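Q: Fold this one first, please.
A: Sequence and structure below.
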Amino acid sequence: MWETRKVYHTKDQLLEGLSKRTGRSILHVLDDNELRTFINYVDKSLMINKSVIEKDRWTIWKAVK
């Protein structure tokens, strides 16, 4: 199941959110240099400047006895 976390209307908004590590605990593991490298990679990977939809994947479990 997918849940929309946030919609970024421009690539710059996404890059700013990444640089602030907002809502992404995995980004807190990176040091500042690693984070800059990651942001540069995302910047170069997204060639067009249009909306980016950030989604989280959830797994639903159902137990039956």
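Q: Good. Now the second chain.
A: Here it is, same layout.
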Amino acid sequence: MGQMKLHDYDEVLDLHFGKVGTPRRDEFERKVDEAVHAYRIGEAVKKARLQQNLTQEQLGDRVGVKKAQISRIERGYSITIPTMSRVFKALGIATATLDLGMAGKVALW
């Protein structure tokens, strides 16, 4: 039996998506960042909903969407800024800001 070569995470990324700075790798990194941000927003929605002892269906009724949409939001899928605004307002979160790093912060609602 031949020996297996083990690769670290960065080597695997380089092999499948190219080196850092290449268009394909940059696109992959951008998509990962977007997914992480969506996941964090979903976790915030879920945490706020559970703190208020609401079911997904009850929150959906407040927002005007079905339970399945709340589930998708909490899992980090299908969240737009208008939907996010409606969800957080339904949870009683009156203001939110988006930190754009060096560009500053922007009030979302």
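Q: Anything worth noting on the second one?
A: The chain has a mean pLDDT of 91.
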